[in-house]
Amino acid sequence: MKIILSGPPGSGKGTQADLLxxxxxxxxxxxxxxxxxxxxxxxxxxxxxxxxxxxxRLVPDEITLxxxxxxxxxxxxxxxxxxxFPRTLPQAQGLDKILLELNDCIxxxxxxxxxxxxxxxxxxxxxTCPNCGAIYNLNFSPPKIPDICDNCGTRLIQRPDDTxxxxxxxxxxxxxxTLELKTYYENSDRMYVIDGSLGRDRVxxxxxxxxxxx
Length: 214
Ligand code: AP5
Hints:
single chain, alpha/beta, Rossmann fold, five-stranded parallel β-sheet, two-stranded antiparallel sheet, 9 helices, 7 strands, 47% helix, globular, binds BIS(adenosine)-5'-pentaphosphate
């Protein structure tokens, strides 16, 4: 099964992907996570994409599609959750082309919607673990010990693109470059829209109902 989790920044894509990976047999492919790892390791790709990610702009499609193609070739026939990819029309068309070459396709496209004011509130309160990737929220799901990851004990960080100024830029980028994907997918009977303002577990229940896993 191949699923796309789409939606504005902070709508809960990563949180929901983690829940699905923990409970079911999925591999989580987040282009944002891939770019952050490359930046941390200072690889040639990391050096190229760093300014885009820090400024909240989209990384060029060719780089994003190249990374995705390599990942899909390595993970043929796996159950995959695409988190934050595709993000532009050329990426969506590129993904369809790669999957066709691999004799595969997308089964479900799920958009998680959330109003801008809730997004800013959530993202400025988000903390992440740089070691295991666990996601926390100071308001909704804080760690048991302040600033320390419950899973691995590492000190939590705030993402550099989670300042209010950059969050607002990312929202603009989403509106201008990603939202049109709803039109691209809406004619298929595989697209669903979920209200992301429901609590984390309610959103998860909605998703597993759609996927027929409930
Ligand atoms: P990326 O890492 O993909 O960021 P994003 O899409 O902006 O999404 P986020 O990770 O910020 O949010 P999320 O929806 O995963 O929310 P989360 O679950 O953490 O991309 C970063 C950058 O990389 C981009 O700006 C771009 O530069 C580049 N990039 C990535 N992919 C690219 C692509 N395909 N093409 C080009 N460039 C690309 O939740 C947010 C917070 O809310 C957390 O604190 C969480 O605990 C809390 N929360 C979650 N769900 C709930 C709930 N239901 N109720 C209450 N709180 C909740």
